[in-house]
Amino acid sequence: MLATDRHPGQGVADVLARTVEVARRAEELGLDDVWVTEHHFLDTAVNPSALTLAAYLLAKTESLHVGTAVTVLPLHSPVHTAEQTALLDQLSGGRFLLGVGRGFPGVEYDLLGSGLAAWRAGLAEPLDRLLAALRGEVSADPALSAVRLTPPVRNPPGPPVYVAAGSPASIELAADRGLPLMLFVDKSAEAKAEMVALYERHRLRGGRPEPAMGHAFAVFAQVCDDPEDARRLMHDRARFILSLNNHPSRLLRDTVSAPPPVSAANVGLLADRLMATHPVGSVETCAERLTHHIRTSGCTRVMCQVEAEADTDDVLRNLERLATEVFPLVRHRLGAASARIAV
């Protein structure tokens, strides 16, 4: 999972070049997927279009699947997003994956969308329009019934669509539509398991089929032989997360609750939580925690954030150690079930 994070002293071109290099190395190492994020008006995360970056990475690779984590759907036309999804599906030979969510209630909803009301309204309406368009139902207006996507998706109903979920409402929405969940780094393995259980209860009550693809989750993943290095990196990540959530672009008027401030105490608490739950540390620690997350949550698509270090060579070294030392251990420990695991 590549978030195009910009560390102090880095230029935009450096960050984007690193993103491409890491994606290409992931393919060389035989990994399944690369996922890219979307952030607006931030100086520390430099990709405002997950779809555009995904398209570029698909063109730079041959076998790797590339997904968006996520396309902030309420900020985009659902039908236009469906058009772009179908185009990438065709161009890539079926290697594109679409993740959608509503993101944060930031100023992008004023500048790109229709204000906070669109964020509060949630994903249901734009998601349904997107799914209908991918099925070929571009408009509910009978006068436009002949309108179709051009090009259409390769194989209906199109590429896998994941729903980023952080609340019961979004979990139930995904279950109602038969779409897999995408869960992020703020959730422990146990919290992920509870969310998947809620999904299953709601799905079964509604008589919905199982999703075609397994649920996905994101974690920080960093191999560190020195515990002090691990602590330093997670301390930096904790400060980055809190700073990001307190950035002026994220604080839209009338937001329900303010995020925790960036203080030494809050940074320390978050760093402790990351150190205790994420696959960060020795090879054995990383393997044990990844195995625990997969077994406990029941999710089978794993998105590892590998960019904690600022230097590209360090990021590539971490990626290689994960691919050659950690992931084989995880697959071995999961046994036959590992055939379904995508990393």
UniProtKB/TrEMBL annotation:
Q: Which InterPro entries match?
A: Bact_Lucif_Oxidored, Luciferase-like_dom, Luciferase-like_sf
Heme among the record's keywords? no
Per the record, the domain of life is Bacteria
Q: Which UniProt keywords apply?
A: Monooxygenase, Oxidoreductase
Q: Where is the Luciferase-like domain?
A: 5-298
Q: Which PANTHER family does the annotation name? A: BLR5498 PROTEIN, LUCIFERASE-LIKE MONOOXYGENASE
Question: Would you tell me the protein name for this molecule?
Answer: LLM class flavin-dependent oxidoreductase
Organism whose genome encodes this protein? Streptomyces thermogriseus
